[in-house]
Request: fold
Amino acid sequence: MEKVSVYYDSEGNTLTVWFGNREEETIGEETGEEMILMKNARGEVIGFEKLNFRAGEEKGRPFAFEAITI
Reply:
């Protein structure tokens, strides 16, 4: 199973999720919906970045996510 990395930048309001090796990123493709897909040289999506993401209006407010293995 691949490792999933989640980064939240509260100053830049971005949420970045990697489910592949981020060092393999060669392409960043904007979707037009405030989302950027990070792809490797084979064109496979290995992560994404959500722009203008706010976890909560209060600083330091925690947020949760659920990981499901299929």
Q: What stands out?
A: The chain is about 0% helix and 35% strand. The chain has a mean pLDDT of 83. The radius of gyration is 13 Å. Residues 1-70 form one domain.
